[in-house]
Every structure is written in C-alpha cells, then in structure tokens.
Amino acid sequence: MVVLSREALHESVVDPVSASMNFLNEVAGRYPEAISLAAGRPFDEFHSVADIDKHIQAYLTHLRERGLSGAAARQLLTQYGRTNGHVGDLIARMLDVDENIQVPAAAVMVTTGCQEAMVIALRGLCAGPGDVVLAAEPCYVGLTGAARILGVEVVGVPESPDGLRPETVRAVAAAVRARGKTPKALYLVPNFANPSGVSLPVPVRRALLAAAADEDLLILEDDPYGLFGLDDEPRPTLKSLDSDQRVIYLGSFAKSYFPGARVGYLVADQTVADAAGRRTLLAEELSTVKSMLTVNTSALSQAVVGGMLIDSGFSLRAVNQAKIAFYRRNLNTLLASLHKHFAGTAVRWNNPSGGFFVVCDVPVDASEALLEVSAQEYGVLWTPMRFFYVGGGGTHAIRLSCSAIEPDRIEEGVGRLAALLRR
Amino acid sequence: MVVLSREALHESVVDPVSASMNFLNEVAGRYPEAISLAAGRPFDEFHSVADIDKHIQAYLTHLRERGLSGAAARQLLTQYGRTNGHVGDLIARMLDVDENIQVPAAAVMVTTGCQEAMVIALRGLCAGPGDVVLAAEPCYVGLTGAARILGVEVVGVPESPDGLRPETVRAVAAAVRARGKTPKALYLVPNFANPSGVSLPVPVRRALLAAAADEDLLILEDDPYGLFGLDDEPRPTLKSLDSDQRVIYLGSFAKSYFPGARVGYLVADQTVADAAGRRTLLAEELSTVKSMLTVNTSALSQAVVGGMLIDSGFSLRAVNQAKIAFYRRNLNTLLASLHKHFAGTAVRWNNPSGGFFVVCDVPVDASEALLEVSAQEYGVLWTPMRFFYVGGGGTHAIRLSCSAIEPDRIEEGVGRLAALLRR
C-alpha cells in the first residue's frame, strides 16, 4: 500500500497559514453553537436558489435579443468556450456604470472566483525566481496562498493604522532591489481591507499610483468590499484614477452576488509588445495561463452572473441596496458593542468606515490555544491576526467579522469576548 | 502608458504549444467554412440548456430526501463551500457502478474541470525542482501546460504503436534518476489516448502498475474517452486494477455530460502520514492547493452534475448510449473514409478501437504552413502531431478528430485531405 510522507509534498500543501485556517474551521466545526466573529462570508439569507434559473433565463433573453440563434446560445452555455469568458462585455459595462472604469471588453478575463485571478496575474507577471510581489501587510491569505503555489516570494509592506503609505512602498521596493530581486507588482485592497478594515484616502491612492510609476510596479487592486461603506462617500478605485494602465483590477461577485457561482474577473488593459512590435492586451496574453489552469470559467456560472448584471441595469450598487444597509447596520452594531464593553479598558480597536472587519489589539497573546478556550468556555470565535503576517507579527491582535450573522448575535458575541478577556 | 515586454512575462504565457494552439484556433476562425477534423470537442447537439434547471431540481430533490432543510440546500448551492466539493459522494457511487472503482467519498475532490485536477496533482506531488513527471508521448497538451505553469519538468516516455511499454517507463525513470532527478508520477490516458488514439491491453495495464510500484511512481490516470469504445469490451481502468493505491484517477464530465459545466474530479485515496504518524487521505491534503487556486468548484455546476448523476442512476454508461452510438459511427466513418482514399498510398494511419482520434503518418512535413494551405485552398483543418511532443517529433504526422461533426462532413473532410496530399 502506498504511504506518502506528508513532508515530501509541496510546501503549499503543508504551509502554516493553511494549517491555521484549517484549525479555525476545525474549531468552528467542533463548537457549532459558538457565535462566529471569525466567518467573513456574506450573509446567507441574501442568496436565493430561484435566482439561478431566473438569471440564466435573463441571459438567454439577452442573447436572443442580440440575434444569437438557439443553437449558438446553447453552445455558449454548454460547450468549451472562449478562454477569457463570454460575459466580459457585461462586466465592462458594469465597471463603467458603478466604478467609472472604462476598459474594452477584451481587457476583461472572467475567472473561477477572484482567487484564480490572483494566481493568473502573479503567474503571468513573475517570470523568474528573482521576481517578487509586494503586498500590504497584514495581508489577505488568498494572495500569499496563490504566491506559494507558484513559488513566488511575497514581501510585506507594513500598513500604518491609516493604511498603506507610499513612502513605505518605495522603501520596501528599494530594499528588495538592494538584495538583487525585482518587485513586479504591489497587491492591495483599497477599501475596508481584509483583515485590517482600513481604507485609503483619495490623495493616498493618487500618491500610490505615483509611487508605483516611479518604482515600475504594477498594482494589483482587489476590491471585494467597496460597495459596503458606512456612508455614501465616493471611494474611487485606483483603477478609475489610473491614467496610464498601471493597475490590474481584481474583481469578485462573492459579496455582491453570491460566492457559490465562483465567478470573478481580472481587468488587464496593459499593452504588451513583443520583439516584433506586435501589440496585444495583457488580458489576452494571460489567457494562455487561464487555459492551463481551468480551460475557462463555468459557462453556467457566467450565464447566471450575466443575467444578474442585465437584470440589475449593470449596477451592483443599485441591486445591492438591501445588502449595503444590512452590512452597515452590522458594522455599526459591532463598533457600538466594542465601545460598550471595552471603552476605557486595555483593548483597542480601529474604526473602519465600511466593510466586514474590525481589528482589536488585545492585552493577551491571541494564540490558537486562547481561541480554543474562547470557543469551548465562552462560545465565541474570532481570527488571530498572526495568520495574516508573512514574516511574523499580529500576536496580540484579533480580527472580528460582522458579515455572516445578525446584529443581536454580534452584540452577544462581543459580550462573550469581553468575558474571555476579563478573565 | 505602461507597455510590458512580452518576453518578460512568464514562460507559460509565451510557450510554443500555446502559440500553436492559438494558431490553430486562429486559422479555424479565419476559415469558418473549412471542415474541422481538428476540433476534439464533443458534438453540440447532445447538450441541452433545459438540462441545467432539470438537473438542479433533481439535486435539490435529492437533498430534500436526505433531510436537508431548504436553508441548508440554499447554502450548499450559493455559499462558499467545502473545498473538495459537495458531490464527491455521488461521483464515488458512479465510479463504483460504472468503473468498478471503490473509494470513499473523502478520496474524491471535485475540480474546475479535469485541467485543474492535473494542476493540483502535479503541485502536490512535485515539491522541488528535482521532482519531475513522466508522460506518455505524444502527450495531451493540458498536462504539459499544467506542468509549465508550475515549473515542473515533464519527461516524455515514447509510446510504441501499441501504446506505452512498461519497459520504456522503467528505462526513462532510470535515466531521469541517473541525472539526479526524481520521477514522482507517470501520466497516461489508457483508453483511446489524445492524441494517439491508442488503448492499452489489460496485461499491459497490470504490467504498468507493477513497473510503477518498482519505480516508486504514482500513476496519473486520465480517462475522458473510456466510455466511447467501438465495442463493448470491458476496458478496466488502472484504478480498478490498483490494489495498493498506486493510481490517482483524473476524471472529466466534459464528454459524458457537457464541457461548459467545467466539472472534473480527482480520486486520491493514497494514505499520507506525517512525522507524528497521523494519517490522512491525499485528496484531503491536496485541498489546501485547491483552496489557493479556485477556493472551490462552482457550486451550481456541481449541483447540475449531481442531479445528472442521480437522474442517470449513477451510470454515465447507461445515460450516454446515444452518444456512444454516435461516436462509434463517426469513428467507423473516419476509418472507412481513410481506407477509401488512402489505401495503397504512402499515407498510413492507426486503427483505434474507440475514442475521438486517429493519427495519420503523411509523406510531407505537416507544418503550420501546410495547415494554412489546407484551410485556405482545400477547406479542411487537422492538427499537426508536432504539437504533442515535448522534445521534438511528430513532424510527418497529423491528428484527425471525429467528435464534433456528422458523418457526411467527416467523409467530405477526408476527401479534401486526400486532395491536399495528392498535390
């Protein structure tokens, strides 16, 4: 009988962040009655199975109106299809309506969730062992995980409490160059980052674009939470401010529609020139990578998303008003509960202006052992911030999520957390 | 404006096989009236958009009968889900019914098509630069493409006209070891391989399992065409003959259901032991890799496939009788047409016992330039066999496909090919 040694498998199988995430899921599984301030998934009750057929039908109607025959529509939904997908034009239209981003449909690649978009962008840009990616730190584990699969080094750019600072990006890029490596791109979440909750002021966004230009970096902008601000302040994406194609925009429908569709996208309108001077768009060049990962994105899932975009008048913002109100109320509830229980104590928390996450500094080691005690004895789950640091850090901080449960449970959960930390 | 140099992108973007495949697609696009003996996709008219909702409903009924609440079913179809998927149990049941493969559901990982299954298996098994994969050559381009994304070296094991020989596997493995590398796995398609069409006799399958055991190789068995034999001979998969978990089985629903669902799977029931002696299944360990590529497989697509499996009584063989008859007639038509036009000439072709492909040796250089002439002047497309060799070869051979068109077009296409080659 074949017995494989776990240690002989690739490092991405056995990496510590995955082990941590598995531990978190495993604890959640063992204490199903615990209130989860750890889960960052969207709230279940916004999703509807009936939407699936409704939106497929809306997409089929749209195809018919565009003059496609029944056979051609069938082929689009059931055959192997164009590597970069069949709803890129609808996504480009939504980006224009909602985000003031104007790109040709050919610059949009539809991906199997945003996770695949990260893998594809990193793979295309990082050609050799000397090519590294910079990432705002604390960093979303999906980005570090994607890099680990590919053997791409991630170098953290420490966030200040107000978010990423352009001068820190410059300093880290210079330090990377000084050790003979090439920083190719900078990954960031401009709005209500996961995990830090922090958003970047507009002048900082512009300054980051300038720093990226000076340092010859592309920016990988990931914006899954941008709709969910506490107010209606405009928060322009870096891509909408990007006048020289410096930004690759990574998109997700997981929070604005539903995660089970597994549809995301990347926008790469950069020009690529070969030695003969032939010019293409980066999204077109990256289709080779996409084809070798998943051939193309589920045609069904694309049709469902396409139908939703058509039904919404190409505005996720318009169609998500109820979700926006719900997540606002939840975040306000979380912040009010933290104030109620922790004002005047040694616990400190930040004050995100939107999104799903708040970070608390706690006066104890926020370890896996403490999480186990928290789940078992106090019935509340949270995420140790140490999971989000590439090279160590976050030992005395936790991430609290408020997206997956209702306000009364958030209040109760923070009360339980207070009981734990009083101990 | 950012202008990227194509040569600075990763080699998987610019690799020659992809360029060749793009060339093929591009020629097909320029000559839409040409008869394609190049396209290996399944025949369109077996697919039905109405099946999508029908099979989702069948899956929902199944979940209800298993006692799941409406909310739990909604969650399964719309939320982030289990990394390894929610229809593994149904796939395990089908493998038992159709293939005499008995594995626990936990050994099945549902993937975004078989392509992702290849990426995940290669990534998990090949941990360092010295770990290489052996592959029957000529080789399916999806395997070499997946390896290129990951920087894994592929070493070809030349097929004889009767298919892979165990002694060649042993010799290639020894040669790889002699240059200080470690062969970790052997990729093969036992039934009607793409591109060669060749199938392995049962004694050879057993001998390959023995050779793999001796050489400490896992076998990556890819079987997308196994249903489509010209006769009802049983052709046991290597996995069904595998008594010591030597085989990782890579599955596809692209030909047995429809490609647009993008659902495949891998079966990895190998035991993994860590330093502490804790034992898990390889499929469970590989879930880390899956989560970093695509999080999980489209829950919608899984539901559609799940409903189809339930509706079919868990037998792809039973539900595919019409397709089996169609592809038999097509392959017989292709072989008869070759006989009619080329018997007694310098053109030689092999005699597959099923599947979608026949290989012809031709007395000319089967180059891209000849393909262009063939498309433009003779209205027929085919695939140069040189696309399928890692290290050169196949210059005077072409692959003919017979899956995507009807018999009269196949006859006409071979006639046009004869006109080209008479020139």
From TrEMBL, chains A, B:
Molecular function via GO: transaminase activity
Keyword Metal-binding: no
Domain Aminotransferase class I/classII large: 63-417
Keywords: Aminotransferase, Pyridoxal phosphate, Transferase
Transferase keyword on record: yes
Pfam families listed in its UniProt record: Aminotran_1_2
InterPro entries for the chain: Aminotransferase_I/II_large, Class-I_PLP-dep_aminotransf, PyrdxlP-dep_Trfase, PyrdxlP-dep_Trfase_major, PyrdxlP-dep_Trfase_small
Name of the protein this chain belongs to: PLP-dependent aminotransferase family protein
Organism: Dactylosporangium vinaceum
